Amino acid sequence: MPSSRILKLTPWLPLATIGLSLGYAATVLTRLPWWALFLIAAGWIGTGLKLSWGRPANARYRKVWPWSLVPLSLMGVYVYLADSFGNVDLGAVFFHLQAGIAEHGGASKMVVAVLYTLTMLGILCSITWLSRHDQRWRLAERYFAIILLATNPLLYGLGQRSVAVVADDREWLNRRYMPPMTGEQSHTPNLLIMYLESLERTYSNEVFDDAYADLNTLGEQGLVFEGIRQMENTGWTMAGMIASQCGVPLMPAGLLHDTQFEPLQKVVPGVDCLGDILSAQGYQLSYLGGASTQFAGKGLFYRGHQFNSVKGKEEFLPDMEDPEYLNSWGLHDDTLYDFTADEIRRLNEEDSGPWAVVNLNLAGHAPSGFPSQTCQDRQGTFDGQDILYSVECSAHEARVFIEQLQREGLLDNTLVVVLSDHLTMRVSVWDQLTALDRDNTLIMLGDYIAPQRIRRDATMLDVFPTILEALGFTLNDHRAGLGVSLLSEKSTLVEVHGIETLNERLREETALQHRLWEGLTPRRRETEDTPAAQVTETPADQADEVNITH
Fold first, then answer.
1. What is the pLDDT of residues 110-142, one digit of tens each?
2. Residue at which a domain ends, from 165, 195, 218
3. Rounded Cα gap, residues 440 and 433, in angstroms
4. Given a cut of 50, is residue 530 above it in pLDDT?
5. How does the entry describe its membrane topology (predicted)?
6. Residues 282 and 146 placed together within one structural domain of the fold
7. Rounded to the nearest 10 degrees, how much is the dihedral formed by the CA atoms of 461, 467, 470, 475?
8. How many domains, in total, are found in the chain?
């Protein structure tokens, strides 16, 4: 083919690369159907051909490097995160980088990351080619670079966090922190906490048929809480567990850590959490998770907060009948629940005082879940994509496990707490989920729990004091951490201020962050040095929140 003919065809490649990528990004960031990407690509290519992009009259080639290459790369990172997780949480990114991502189960994500990288290289090459061959692009892409920087939510989030340096009030949340001062328990029940990965209560909506039916059945036996919303820095597994066991959002150590380039050695050492309180009361504490305890600091958190036994994938492998029966993250739920039942039997047999067992399953993990073979034998073949199949599996396995323990008498005098660790990330029914008012699962079962439903505007922070009061502890003003017991009539922070205000205050907060990481952070001047009178609050801002009226 003559070289002149090749030159005429050349603009098709950069135009098609940019058009398809633009269409794909639009479907990821909006509710447009997947096939809309082809319409957007066709419109882009048609416009480019009509305007002769890359082949202008009086073309003047110039070897330049476009200004937009870096802004485009940053936008590509944001689209990748949004495509992988749905909502992009910078706190999760920072925390996982510092706490460690060893032994993660996201092998498929690595393949997607490579494909995204190759696509971004194609986009950057296309922009460079057009800018060098078309003086109109050379002029326009500079403004394009500014627009990309101004509209990138990733950079907007970083900017909001930087505001804390000059914020007028950087301890709004810290002033509302209530150390969990507990009196003697009125009774000392055992405690079983079951975190169901990503299994939010939103799945109970009729849109999703019977996927949540087994949890609805469990809820009929006990106390169901509705309206447990998700504030920022509580939307991933470690953050959800810390919010519900410590009453605080997980604000990453970040640059507060003395050795920023080394892994963390402790996780939120500056606050007392559920494990610290129960250990002081003589409880035997065990954590069992399907995934590795090395990932995201899970082992560090539980060991650092007084758990006697902390086990994950590596600890269970030697005792598995079939070491090959694993998913990419770790144990399937049926295996995990067998080990958990054995642990509860051991604790009951030892009779060395009350016990608390926490476990975390994997079946509902985004994007498609990891249904166990037990579920596939019951539900039929799994197509590898349908998250509702995995949600049904997770709910059913949890119900069967609890009923098994009840039949064996292992849950006598035991408070059972079933909850989601956080709202799910991007899954096959993402558009349906995000069109609804979403909330987390929280169900309590036990001898002292009367069946009822309580609807409160709350967050996972409020789960911590609720569990403590359900265990028979008396709390100061029904508060612990930033949470308020949902068994009381005292207003939650969300009920008084709204979720948007809490998120805004969280982005400006530094004092609570220092509290969480006390001992790992450089010494700072105490906030008490600044007279409290310098901070002006409205009545609704006061730390002693006003009670709700009924």
1. 677 788 788 889 888 988 888 888 888 888 888
2. 165
3. 12
4. no
5. Multi-pass membrane protein
6. no
7. -60
8. 2
